[in-house]
Specification:
The complex is a heterotrimer of chains A (259), B (285) and C (305).
Chain A: H1 2-31, H2 43-76, H3 80-93, H4 98-118, H5 126-150, H6 155-169, H7 172-184, H8 191-201, H9 207-218, H10 227-240
Chain B: E1 6-16, E2 25-36, E3 41-45, H1 52-59, E4 67-72, E5 75-76, E6 86-89, H2 101-111, H3 116-129, H4 145-156, E7 163-167, H5 175-190, E8 194-198, H6 202-208, E9 211-216, E10 219-225, H7 226-230, H8 245-258, H9 272-281
Parallel strand pairs in B: 3-8, 3-9, 6-7, 7-8
Antiparallel strand pairs in B: 1-2, 1-4, 4-5, 9-10
Helix pairs in contact in B: 2-3
Chain C: H1 21-36, H2 39-61, H3 66-99, H4 102-107, H5 113-157, H6 163-174, H7 177-201, H8 207-232, H9 243-253, H10 264-268, H11 275-301
The chains are: A mainly alpha (259), B alpha/beta (285), C mainly alpha (305).
Chain lengths: 259, 285, 305
């Protein structure tokens, strides 16, 4: 009995002593966005008992992978409700995987929206159809925004957000801003900072800003003096009334027709 | 006066009775006191459940007494150090099946702080002593009961202890093997090794023990020198060889005249064990 | 049988040491040998090998980040199997020695109960190390095979001037010191579970109870982060604080935070885990090991055998 009492006392003291240490470690990791996850209220239902236990048995990432594959299977059957549920689970289990957010957004904003547009015979009212399509675009946008929140250093999510704004929402300003954010992230590809300037040029009221950016890109050298950049630069020069002697020298084959 | 090998003073041990939820207790040993002098063979006897095993476990520090104390060569038996000089052969010994006989001895030798060449030589010596040289590289899992007893005896002796505690050392051993174990114990006694022997084989106890203690229901009911305890005080035994019938008649007459009673007159019998050994010694293998 | 002439030096070979690594290591060695000859050890290694190998097949099924798929499945296998081995191996040690009375012959020698427990835990540790090393070697082979396939893809599809950079980036992503450090932390977690199991078996009366209680403890350990978050910020989770909820949460928080040892999830997605995080996991792991071993000894020291 003496040994058991002493043992329990040691366990209790250790439990009390380790609490602030573990709390501090958990907080540090949360700030670093490491190992964070959120368990949704319906995840137990979705995964079943074994899957739920496996999540807490340290197989969180592996389960997320399996659920991701499951989402793909549901997509093949065009069951977009299930696709969304599955993606909600795998993004909550492994929020630090940009690919999950990216694919979730793509399935909602492009595939689900296209399905509603072209194949869903249950919707007959065109207004309702348009509303449904727009809702799916919004879902896609939400996935990307949440993905960015969980993966702030990932440029690809910003890039895809820019694509979504320009292709679906036709909002060139938002697209430009998204590409601008992508351009600030490490590892981004070259085109994103060009796209920022290009789509800003198409946003009414932002011609000066667009012109400054396009000019800066032009001055980076031949590798950046691509046709679209040159075209947009000329357009901005015209819109802003830049004197001809201050305009950049465009090769003849890329010159716009005279005003 | 030398320090006794084992000193037991007012030893009492109570166990909780798991069958009684109200907190009942079982009194396994009650106010036990006796000494085992160094260099002697002491037989601790008693029926099953008398408290012998509990007493042995307390002496070896495996169980804590409720009250009282036990000492080994003057050292509290709860100290791990006291077991440097003790070897135990438990009843129905069991060892790790996957170890060979030799590896078993090496293992127990290391537990006693031995190692290297000294341990290897000691193991070889003990395997020869207990007659397991040929089985040294066989796994203990394949040993017979008798072989297990022998390897058990060897591991008990690995660190050359000053005290050996043997619980039923001849259980499952054939008469020849039992004889060898008895002879070994007597040789150990000559080397002043103390032996605490628990056995139901009373003939062996009678042959080799100097003192015995008999336990019953947790108490020591008899204790002392063997010859004193079992001698029938009022009787005298004479064994005559080549006595003539006339001499025998004269002795009978004198006994009758003196008022004493001739209790029995018969041919003495040889020991069955000795008879068995003589008969089987030359049997073909 | 002849009387042995034994050197008188044997019994005075050396003065008794309060703690002896030789004694503990003798017990560790036999424990390790006992564990690796159990069929369950080989079955588990074979299953782990199958799962790690299957991750290459999964790569073919999934169109997603292939490296992550291989990592997640393989590391998940290592995570699960080291836990299983730790608990199942440790749970049977004490009950078996007690039932077969091998414990009596061991403790009748000048071996303290602490040395006995430490030796047992040490033996389990050696077995877990060997198992983890084997699974890691297999993972390395799988990653190397996958890497080879990806190098071929790069050489076939990427512009010539970008090939060296792409290959260097691929190799840097595949094999990192932090991956192996993360696996090392998984080994440490398994050791913590083994020590936890040893602690339970030091007072438990059956190995089955030990196994069940240990698995429950590990499961609860994975819930500790949630319990701690709810306890510290109940309003954020929409939870109404009551006395029994508080008591329950405090009870849960006493268990080891298993999530703290799970750095491989972050490593697998390419997160840059600071070395300080490995340090904190190692520190806490060693703390748990020490505490559970101490408590196991306290429970065992006065146990009636």
């Amino acid at each position: 009995m003496k040994g058991r009492i002493l043992g329990l006392l040691v366990l209790l003291l250790w439990g009390i002593a380790k609490m602030p240490l573990e709390t501090r470690i958990a907080e540090t990791r949360r700030e670093q966005q490491l190992g964070t996850y959120k368990i949704l209220s319906n995840v137990r239902q979705q995964l079943g008992q074994a899957g739920f236990l496996a999540v807490f048995g340290g197989l969180r990432s592996a389960i997320a992978d399996l659920v991701f594959i499951g989402a793909h299977v549901q997509w093949e059957k065009a069951k977009y409700g299930k696709v969304k549920e599955y993606f909600d689970i795998c993004t909550s289990l492994q929020p630090r995987c940009p690919l999950y957010w990216d694919m979730a957004s793509w399935h909602m904003a492009y595939n689900a929206a296209a399905y509603v547009d072209m194949r869903d015979k249950t919707i007959t009212d065109p207004l309702e159809r348009a509303r449904e399509i727009h809702n799916y675009w919004k879902l896609g946008e939400d996935y990307l925004l949440n993905g960015i929140k969980n993966n702030p250093e990932d440029w690809g999510l910003w890039d895809n957000l820019g694509l979504l704004y320009r292709e679906k929402f036709h909002d060139n300003l938002k697209a430009a801003r998204a590409y601008g954010e992508a351009a600030k992230r490490p590892g981004r590809l070259d085109y994103v900072h060009r796209f920022e300037a290009i789509y800003l040029a198409d946003a009414p009221g932002y011609e000066k800003e667009a012109y400054d950016k396009l000019l800066a890109i032009y001055k980076e050298g031949d590798s950046q003096q691509l046709p679209t950049v040159l075209k947009k630069l000329q357009l901005m020069e015209r819109k802003l009334g830049i004197p001809k002697d201050q305009r950049v020298d465009i090769p003849p084959k890329y010159r716009l027709p005279p005003e | 006066m030398s320090t006794p090998a084992i000193t037991i003073e007012n030893l009492t041990k109570e166990f909780k009775n798991p069958a009684l939820f109200s907190g009942g207790k079982i009194l396994a040993v009650k106010d036990l006191s006796f000494n085992v002098e160094a260099g002697t063979v002491y037989g601790l006897l008693g029926p099953n459940g008398s408290g012998k095993s509990t007493t042995m476990k307390i002496v070896l520090g495996l169980v804590t007494p409720t009250s009282g104390r036990t000492l080994i060569f003057g050292r509290d038996s709860r100290d791990v150090e006291s077991r440097e000089s003790v070897g135990l052969l438990p009843e129905n010994p069991y060892f790790y099946k996957f170890l060979t006989g030799q590896e078993t001895l090496h293992f127990y030798g290391k537990l006693c702080g031995m190692g290297g060449k000294m341990l290897r030589e000691r193991a070889k010596e003990l395997l020869a002593l207990v007659g397991l040289e040929e089985a040294a590289h066989r796994r203990v899992g394949g040993y017979s009961k008798g072989m297990l007893q022998r390897i058990g005896l060897a591991q008990a002796m690995v660190q050359d202890p000053r005290l050996l505690v043997l619980d039923e050392p001849t259980a499952g051993v054939d008469p020849a093997g039992s004889r060898q174990i008895c002879d070994l114990i007597l040789k150990l006694k000559e080397r002043e090794v103390t032996v605490l022997l628990c056995s139901h084989l009373l003939s062996m106890v009678q042959e080799i023990c100097d003192r015995i203690g008999i336990m019953h229901r947790g108490e020591l009911v008899r204790e002392g020198k063997l010859e004193d305890l079992i001698a029938i005080e009022s009787q005298t035994e004479l064994v005559l060889e080549n006595a003539s019938p006339a001499l025998l008649a004269e002795i009978r007459a004198k006994v009758g005249a003196s008022g004493a009673r001739l209790v029995a007159e018969q041919k003495p019998q040889q020991n069955l064990e000795r008879y068995f050994l003589d008969v089987t010694k030359d049997s073909p293998k | 049988m002849t009387a042995a002439s034994s050197p008188s030096a044997i019994s005075q070979a050396s003065a008794h040491k309060l703690f002896s690594w030789r004694r503990a290591s003798a017990i560790a060695g036999t424990t390790f040998r006992d564990l690796v000859r159990q069929k369950v050890f080989y079955f588990m290694l074979v299953f782990a090998a199958i799962i790690i190998g299957l991750s290459l097949v999964l790569v073919n099924l999934s169109f997603r980040g292939q490296l992550q798929a291989v990592m997640d499945v393989s590391l998940g296998a290592i995570s699960v199997f080291t836990l299983l081995l730790a608990i199942l191996s440790t749970a049977v040690l004490l009950p078996r020695d007690l039932e077969e009375r091998t414990l009596y012959t061991i403790l009748a020698k000048p071996v303290s109960r602490f040395e006995y427990l430490l030796g047992k835990l040490w033996g389990v540790g050696i077995m877990l190390f060997v198992a983890t090393a084997l699974m890691t070697a297999l993972l390395s082979i799988v990653l190397y095979a996958w890497q080879g396939k990806e190098v071929s893809n790069i050489m076939a599809n990427v512009e010539v001037e970008k090939v060296p950079q792409a290959i260097a980036h691929l190799k840097a992503s595949t094999f990192t010191w932090k991956l192996f450090a993360g696996i090392g932390i998984l080994f440490l977690r398994a050791m913590v579970c083994a020590a936890f199991t040893l602690m339970i078996s030091s007072f438990a009366t059956s190995w089955l109870f030990t196994v069940v209680a240990s698995f429950m403890g590990v499961l609860i350990g994975h819930l500790v982060p949630i319990a701690r978050a709810v306890w510290l910020e109940p309003m954020q989770y929409g939870v109404e604080v009551s006395w029994y909820l508080t008591a329950f949460l405090r009870f849960v928080i006493l268990f080891p935070d298993m999530q703290m040892f799970n750095l491989v999830d972050s490593i697998a997605v390419g997160d840059q885990v600071p070395w300080a995080d490995f340090g904190s996991a190692v520190g806490m792991g060693c703390g748990y090991l020490a505490v559970y071993t101490l408590v196991a000894w306290l429970f065992f020291a006065w146990k009636e055998l």
